[in-house]
Amino acid sequence: MKDQRFLESEWDYCLVLDACRYDVFSDVYDEFLEGSLEKRRSKGSSTPEWAYRTFTGDHDIAYFSSNPFINDLGIPLNELKWGASCDYEWTANEHISEVVDVWDHGWDDDLGTVPPDSLAESFEQHRDLVEEADRTVIHYMQPHAPYLARGKGQKLEQIQKGIKKQGESEDGDDGVLSSLGDAVRPKIESALDGKEIAQKAGLWLELDPKDLVQNGTRGAAMALYEENLRIALESVAELVEQLDGDVVVTADHGEAFGEEGVWEHHIETYIPPLMEVPWLTVE
């Protein structure tokens, strides 16, 4: 299996599906797109790690980001108080020439995420940036939770609002409650480190209790995850028709559903469901 070689590969437009497993993608992609599919190995098992290890130089890229971790705020990942929990001293706008914060202006409060159509709208509104840049990345939030068929998401919404608030704060300090959270969170994470029930907790926020009872955590989540991917691919296929150049569809990392006791995705967790990603060269 090849390394992803994201920047070293030939493309004019790269469409990134967040948390997209290779196996699920390979089962459904040809209902929406035609092309040559490869399995490649990502550089990270989560978005912060993937971004930190992929974008290491200066890159003339127009990056449309629905993921709050890749933003134009200039806050290093290791200083983000909401959701990153990593040591990476990396900011998107130090390495990428133009970052469009679709996670901010394209956010849907009813869904608790950025729907696929918001990426297409933002792309159309910023055609000037696309024309000026050497290459363009369009980073979809799906199939990452929240699951659009389920309704309003919760976990991602907390991250989005927290990062946005931190970026708007002059001194990066959100007060006593934030400081308390910074002090308490590492202790909680340390106590729960490696425990499967702790990893499942975030996923349970996005699932219907009835589905959990009927299908179990894995069955309920996998069904919604696949539907999220189909929704994203339908939008991707429509956008691809408008693109003039070489187009690739890939992912930053995958998603785990209990393999080796891992749920969702976490930094530096190098198991196949998280590291194996699709690389589709679109015809």
Describe the fold and architecture:
- This protein has 283 residues and is an alpha/beta fold.
- The chain has an eight-stranded mixed β-sheet.
- It contains ten helices and ten strands.
- The protein has a single domain, classed as Alkaline Phosphatase, subunit A (3-Layer(aba) Sandwich), CATH 3.40.720.
How are the elements arranged and paired?
Elements: E1 2-3, E2 13-18, H1 22-28, E3 35-41, H2 47-54, E4 59-65, E5 96-101, H3 102-105, H4 116-125, H5 127-132, E6 135-143, H6 155-168, H7 176-192, H8 196-204, H9 209-240, E7 247-251, E8 256-257, E9 263-264, H10 272-275, E10 276-282
Parallel strand pairs: 1-3, 2-6, 2-7, 4-5, 4-6
Antiparallel strand pairs: 3-10, 7-10, 8-9
